[in-house]
Design brief:
single chain, 3 domains, seven-stranded mixed β-sheet, 10 helices, globular
Length: 367
């Protein structure tokens, strides 16, 4: 490609250009790194625009680091770089479409991937579930991932980014996990979001509920009418429907920041059979801790849900539980089974989010 022509195309892609269409403006900004001191970049024809609008041509492989409150590239400091290439750009081990924006934030690199919303969703599917699942469950995942992203874009309007690429929001691993079935699920639901009274919902979801989805008020204190919790026997075959975990009391003391832990007892359960509180017996007395806080302190991949029992014996705690995740909204393994049972994606969604309505995300919809 002619170098001047590529330069013009790249500058347009980088965003400092003439006005673009509503479709092109339908972008999402995802923080893919917030804590690194440096990142390695690889891409064909990489070009950057610095904060002044001047172009910087990058080699096929480059390392960007942080120094003196700036991002450093080949010994030169910049406040911000927006980078595009002829194809996906590899950041360390993962590839990303669209534009990369790099800046320094609190002494570390902030790396944001800016790309069309629908392209982002194709990268989410296999990061959250498997595109080999029944297509109706893939389509259900596409709709809730889109809805979640749109709601976060509204909530975080004016912030540097809309979403994180981790379980803090929804997992996004770039373009490496894209495939035709993921793209089909996104394409066949193009623009569709779940709404309640005309506005995108808080489309929370989780891996498996263990029999009953949770009421949002029990987890975050906000009672949302479409997140009241429903019975779900569909996830019984899920890979994490039941789990066990053995942890030493000394490890739990460190995680929970308590000293002299001698016993763990269970507090009352809520209407969805999940624990409200956990009682920690220590040499200094009893500490009552919300079960959701206990789970996050120990580790959400260790204590997989707040539906568990516990036995303490000989310096260790033995946990047995069911479900994986906070339990609110759609149960992914339940959605898979419902799809296998012949339910459509719209029926799956209306079951887990009662009272909601599917609507097309229009450019003039206000969100």
């Amino acid at each position: 490609m002619n170098k001047l022509l590529f330069l013009i195309i790249a500058i347009v892609a980088l965003g400092w250009s003439a006005p673009v269409s509503a479709v092109e403006r339908d972008l999402i900004r995802v923080a893919i790194s917030r804590a690194a001191d440096s990142v390695n970049l690889q891409g064909d024809g990489m070009l950057a625009l610095r904060e002044t609008g001047m172009a910087v041509v990058l080699p096929p492989a480059a390392t960007v680091s942080v120094g003196h409150g700036q991002i450093m590239l080949d010994g030169t400091g910049y406040r911000r770089l927006r980078i595009t290439a002829a194809g996906p750009i590899k950041v360390n081990t993962k590839s990303y479409r669209g534009v990369l924006e790099l800046s320094a934030s609190n002494g570390v690199l902030l790396v944001i991937n800016e790309l069309p919303l629908e392209d982002y969703l194709v990268g989410v599917i296999n990061s959250e579930i498997s595109s080999t699942w029944p297509m109706e469950s893939v389509k259900a995942q596409a709709v809730i991932a889109r809805t979640y992203a749109v709601a976060k874009r509204i909530e975080r309007h004016g912030s540097p980014y809309h979403l994180e690429a981790t379980v803090m929001d929804q997992v996004y691993s770039g373009s490496d996990l894209e495939d035709s079935r993921a793209a089909r699920g996104v394409h066949e639901t193009a623009g569709q979001v779940l709404t309640y009274h005309g506005k995108p919902i808080q489309a929370f979801y989780h891996a498996t509920c263990g029999g009953k989805t949770e009421d949002s008020s029990h987890v975050w204190g906000a009672a949302l009418p479409y997140l009241k919790g429903v019975d779900c026997q569909y996830c019984a075959l899920g890979n994490s429907n039941t789990w066990e975990q053995a942890l030493s009391l000394s490890r739990l003391e460190t995680a929970l920041k308590v000293a002299g832990l001698t016993d763990i007892r269970l507090g009352p359960r809520n209407s969805r059979d999940r624990l409200k509180t956990v009682l920690l017996s220590t040499s200094h007395g009893t500490v009552t801790m919300p079960a959701t806080k206990f789970r996050m302190a120990v580790g959400s991949t260790v204590i997989k849900s707040t539906n568990f029992t516990v036995r303490v014996d000989d310096g260790s705690a033995y946990f047995s539980g069911s479900g994986y995740g906070h339990g609110v909204g759609l149960c992914q393994w339940g959605a898979k089974q419902r799809a296998l049972d012949g339910f459509s994606y719209s029926e799956i969604l209306s079951y887990y989010y009662p009272g909601t309505e599917l609507r097309i995300l229009a450019p003039d919809a206000g969100f």
